[in-house]
Amino acid sequence: MRGFRPNYHVWVYHGKSGVYVGNSSKNVVHEQEEAIYVEEEADCFEDDDEVENSIDDDNDRVEDMLHEVEDEVRDRVFECLSKAAETPLYPGCTKYSKLSAVCTLYNIKTSGGWTDISFTELLVALSDMLPAGNELPRSNYYAKKLMCPFGLEYKKIHACPNDCLLYHKQYENLDKCPRCGVSRYKRKGVSEGKNVYPAKVLWYLPIIPRFKRLFSIKKDARNLRWHADPDRRKKDGFLRHPADSTQWKTIDKLHDTFGKEPRNLRLGLCTDGMNPFGTLSSQHSTWPVLLVIYNLPPWLCMKRKYIMLSLLISGPKQPGNDIDVYLEPLVDDLRKMWDEGVSVFDAHANETFRLRAMLFCTINDFPAYGNLSGYKNKGRKACPTCEDDTQSKYISECHKYVFLRTRRLLRRDHPYRKMKTVFDGDVEMDVARRTLTGKEVYKRVKGVETVFGKSVKDRGTTGLWKKESVFWKLPYWKDLPVRHCLDVMHI
């Protein structure tokens, strides 16, 4: 794999001590790492074909999916699904039942991104092609109705269009925002007596039922303890998985009751703005909030199947610093998962246990980093690590700040420190400041008064921290050495 220049320098160690391999037109290091990765994955799957096969089997898993359904509706739901699972797709068909056929087609619809209209047209065409008396639904509506017991709940929470608050808990029955006075509903075209169109909506997909669903499937229940299995996880001193990090070990040490249970979940949170309408509306910004489960093997935790959409913050404007308002339902569930835990059935161990979960870190780009952490990461003091010690220079021609003294992060004897002409003309002798611990950061943000909402002109913050982030409500947040991370694409 060639670089962007024919004689591109392969930076293997980035200044660290070791054997230098010289220039190359082919990145041997990346090829070796990829080969090792494929070999490790193959080795793990070789011993666990039954449980870890990446291709789902054809079983409907009706009983597994109904473990966490309420008792009073379980019998009725099970009866309907069992009847669909036992009904052949058409008279004489032995390969597909009514339920398995609909599930197979709906999986193809989801993975292909088909619209409901095109899927209905496909169902009609297939129904006409199959023998008479077939049981295939003829519309997307009836296909979804058949599978609705498999679905998971979601909540539509009305929000103030100025991002002041959510209309739940003590504000649930209000018709207008108590802070900015803006109506909760879209009045245009709607009579005063019919308040049916909210001005802004937060879609929340509760995480607890989804965790229960994961543990109700035997294959997933076993994979969720992969990080604690010495026979499946390689430990050779390299950082191959978040379980090899010092943060993971710090949590196990400070919260030993949490760390002793390998099934307890450690989650990563990711969010960024997106335009769901393509190029039709370049100003529209919708913010999904995703959760990744770090208990899983590295080749599974970033698969789309295991990335959980927990929140969808509707546009058209981005929440910005007011994102804490929308994170509140998720943080409440995370707090519950830490303080109390929930009773969950483990299909692999065939037992019920108390599941707990924690937010391991957040992963975002730099603007979202500032929104979540509460640090003012714009302007002269944009570095959340250096804070007041940030060294910057303003370039008037492009109206931007640049940060030149990054050589302070290098070791004392690094040759770059003495290079003048290729940098800013000076020898760098200073060292970077020590990174603040979570408890030190909490002392700085504790008590910072913040009023959320786009209509607020003066937020009352004059320091480098603009708010006390909602994540500080989590009891363990101050114990984490690294709370917010930047994704690799933005480094």
TrEMBL record:
InterPro entries: Transposase_21 (IPR004242)
PANTHER family from the UniProt entry: OS08G0208400 PROTEIN (PTHR10775), TRANSPOSON, EN_SPM-LIKE, TRANSPOSASE-ASSOCIATED DOMAIN PROTEIN-RELATED (PTHR10775:SF180)
Protein's name in the database: Transposase-associated domain-containing protein
Taxonomic source organism: Spinacia oleracea (Spinach)
Highest classification ranks of the organism: Eukaryota, Viridiplantae, Streptophyta, Embryophyta, Tracheophyta
Name of the gene: LOC110800244
